[in-house]
Specification:
Length: 567
């Protein structure tokens, strides 16, 4: 069954799952390379895409999204709707019915108690759950029997498909994580490195920030899948190394997220060993502005809302930084046909894309200089602006990647034209997108003035994604530095829009609210969107069954991958 997004008059049609091309485990090993290496396999303890992707081979949600952004059942046979009685008429509850006979990879049954525990785990105080917004509005979870899960909301929930849906909100085993609630969550190394799951593969060896080895799950619900007996998942290195390993040398079968200049990809593909796949979704390369002071002398209060940023708290500075950027050139330099200019952090689906911020598409250096002059930021003899003894000097960090370093270099030049001094820093992606709350170099810690990366969300409804910039989502020591609100933006008006969207059923009104939230962030210039990025990955010519999905995990259908017998 599939669910199209019309909420309550949902068109529900049946689909047939694709047949595997081989019996389970008969196609040997598939080799996957991600140039950003996972540091753990628990997506609830990391906001990094690399952890979510690697974990998706093991951990699964009740429902997920296919390559068209359509919600499909995964651990259930039918998606709950108002029409079929699965969503209550007053929209205050949703009832999920687990498929019969589901087993964990250790041979024990998956039950409703595991689903309830997953909610308890993510919402436990002090746990620092990175996906907490997925469970917003959930008041309780009931388990009337082993296969029935009733999610009760604290009020009408017009879009009840956030909890337990998508690769970011999978089900974890209660028995394995029972002693990992709250502050203990990061301490459960074995569970976080080797989670027991219902997916097509199980972990046999995990070396953080390096290599993961999987083998076919003997208890997977389809006895004919997966076709591959083993998966080698190599992490780390550079995007060009990953692309070359598939497209030029044929050492690997699949390479993720080839964030490379278009001419580089074309040159690699000419070798004839593989092909690229491209899909647009909601992935936006953006600059995050730190509204808190990251100065080291602040100690434990560093990069927290206790201390506003001495420079970037001034809106005129943030706006001028945006005005100085030539987004068209960034598209040409970094992505070509795989990129589009955007002035929104929410670029899609089309009904949610605002046109209120399009002025950012035109670079305006003269306007940026005039704005800073009017705000009292005056150029000194060295060309750097200052105000009240504070120099306009910024530390700009990002992950290590050729395209991102090209972006940093040219943006530094553009900002120098408006009197901004910029120091550049790049950090290994394994660390930058890592989950270690003790590391000073994660993008959540944000011990810099501005930082650049890309992010997106599961599915096509942006409710949970936009809630990521609510006050409660600010990373801090109290929540293990988890949360998605990297700028430390906090607005009662914004939070009110989040709450209203959670209670709104009309699709047109939901679009208005999403646009309003996007516009507030854009017009406060706390996020500077740069490029609406298409996802470019590559696979060997011999690898069949690959369907690129920009709305969920890119490895969402790995159970259907197989070796083409003609290659």
């Amino acid at each position: 069954m599939t669910l199209k997004f019309s909420l309550f008059s949902a068109a529900v049609v049946s689909v047939l799952a694709p047949m595997a091309w081989a019996e389970r485990g008969t196609d040997g090993q598939v080799n996957i390379i991600y140039w950003q290496a996972p540091s753990l396999l628990n997506p609830y303890l990391s906001g990094g895409i690399k952890e979510q992707e690697a974990a998706s081979l093991i951990l699964e949600p009740l429902a997920r999204y296919n390559e068209t952004g359509t919600m499909v059942p995964w651990l259930v046979d039918t998606l709950p709707t108002v029409e079929n009685g699965g969503v209550s008429g007053d929209l205050t509850s949703i009832t999920w019915q687990l498929s019969e006979g589901l087993m964990w990879s250790d041979g024990s049954p998956l039950t409703s108690a595991d689903v309830k525990f997953t909610w308890e785990y993510c919402t436990a105080e002090g746990g620092g759950c990175a996906q907490i917004e997925k469970y917003g509005g959930v008041a309780s979870v009931e388990t009337p029997d082993a296969r029935t899960v009733v999610v009760n909301f604290d009020g009408p929930k017009p879009f009840p498909y956030t909890a337990f849906v998508g690769a970011q909100a999978p089900i974890i085993q209660a028995a394995q994580f029972a002693d990992c609630l709250g502050p203990k969550a990061p301490e459960c190394t074995d569970a976080n490195f080797r989670p027991i799951g219902t997916g097509p593969f199980v972990v046999t060896d995990f070396r953080p920030n390096d290599v993961i080895q999987y083998e076919a799950n003997p208890y997977y619900r389809d006895p004919a899948k997966p076709a591959f007996a083993k998966v080698l998942f190599k992490g780390g290195g550079k995007a060009d190394d990953a692309g070359r390993a598939v497209l030029e040398t044929g050492e690997f079968d699949y390479a993720w997220n080839l964030q490379l200049a278009p001419e580089v990809i074309a040159s690699m593909q000419a070798a004839g060993h593989g092909k690229t796949v491209l899909g647009f979704g909601t992935l936006v390369e953006r600059i995050m502005i730190n509204l808190s002071d990251p100065s080291a002398e602040l100690g434990e209060e560093r990069a927290t809302r206790a201390h506003p940023h001495p420079v970037l708290s001034h809106k005129a500075v943030r706006q001028a930084l945006s005005m100085a950027i030539d987004r068209a050139s960034l598209v040409d330099i970094g992505y070509g046909a795989a990129g589009r200019m955007t002035c929104n952090v929410l670029p899609a689906p089309p009904e949610y894309a605002s046109s209120a911020n399009d002025a950012c598409m035109t670079r305006d250096v003269a306007g940026a200089n005039a704005l800073l002059e009017q705000a009292g930021w005056i150029k000194g003899a060295d060309g750097i602006r200052a105000k009240d003894g504070m120099r306009l000097s910024l530390l700009f960090q990002s992950s290590t990647n050729a395209v991102r370093q090209d972006f940093q270099a040219i943006i530094k030049q553009w900002w120098s034209e408006i009197g901004v001094e910029t120091e550049l820093r790049n950090i290994s992606a394994n660390v930058f997108f890592g989950s270690d709350p003790g590391s000073p170099d994660t993008f959540q810690k944000f011990f810099a003035d501005v930082e650049m990366y890309a992010n997106n969300f599961d599915g096509t409804d942006p409710e949970a994604y936009m809630a990521g910039w609510s006050c409660a989502q600010i990373p801090a020591p109290e929540n293990q530095w988890q949360g998605n609100n990297m700028p430390r933006f906090c607005s009662e008006d914004y939070d009110a829009l989040v709450a209203e969207m959670q209670q709104t059923s009309d699709l047109g009104k939901r679009a208005e609210l999403a646009k309003a939230m996007n516009d507030m962030l854009m017009q406060e210039f706390v996020i500077l969107p740069l490029v609406d990025r298409g996802r470019v990955s590559a696979h060997a010519n011999s690898l069949g069954g690959v369907i690129l999905n920009t709305w969920d995990s890119e490895l969402w259908n790995i159970a259907d991958w197989h070796r083409n017998k003609s290659n």
